[in-house]
Inverse folding.
């Protein structure tokens, strides 16, 4: 009788994690690793105005939330990227097969039922346009432009209708 009770207690102890957690929670957890790259490298990554890393890097984000990231590097225009939460098909199927209602409830409440998209972020930062100021009579300003900036300026000029 005592062996039977011990066996039931052991079985119950082993079953609790599977009963109290959904399949998504067990398989991949509530956070997802996202790879973040920029060209050029060394851009700060901000979320809600707070620096959370520098490219290139891998960071872990909560699966159950959307995330708006800003890539910032001096001399370059900011780039914003949204990590969208989407229902994870693997968690959905496994909960249908094994997790049942409890599994669905757990995974949707803690965010494990979702996957973030994209899982790899590659951004190309564009140099900021250089503002040209009018020099004073005794000043000389030297301004350097990249070939890309000159090409964009020429395209803009070509698109602008001639003034009479």
């Amino acid at each position: 009788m005592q062996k039977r009770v011990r066996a039931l207690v052991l079985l119950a102890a082993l079953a609790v994690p599977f009963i109290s957690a959904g399949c998504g929670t067990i398989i991949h957890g509530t956070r997802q690793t996202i790879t973040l790259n920029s060209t050029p490298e060394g851009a700060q990554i901000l979320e809600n105005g707070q620096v959370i890393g520098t490219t290139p890097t891998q960071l872990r984000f909560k699966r159950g939330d959307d995330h708006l990231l800003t890539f910032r590097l001096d001399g370059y225009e900011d780039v914003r990227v949204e990590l969208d939460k989407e229902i994870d098909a693997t968690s959905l199927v496994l909960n249908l097969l094994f997790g049942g209602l409890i599994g669905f409830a757990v995974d949707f409440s803690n965010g494990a039922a979702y996957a973030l998209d994209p899982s790899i972020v590659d951004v190309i930062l564009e140099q900021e346009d250089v503002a040209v100021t009018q020099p004073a009579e005794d000043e000389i300003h030297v301004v350097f432009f990249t070939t890309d900036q000159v090409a964009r300026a020429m395209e803009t000029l070509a698109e602008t209708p001639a003034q009479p």
User: Anything to note?
Assistant: The CA atoms of residues 85 and 124 lie 23 Å apart. The longest strand covers residues 31-39. Residues 2-124 form one domain.
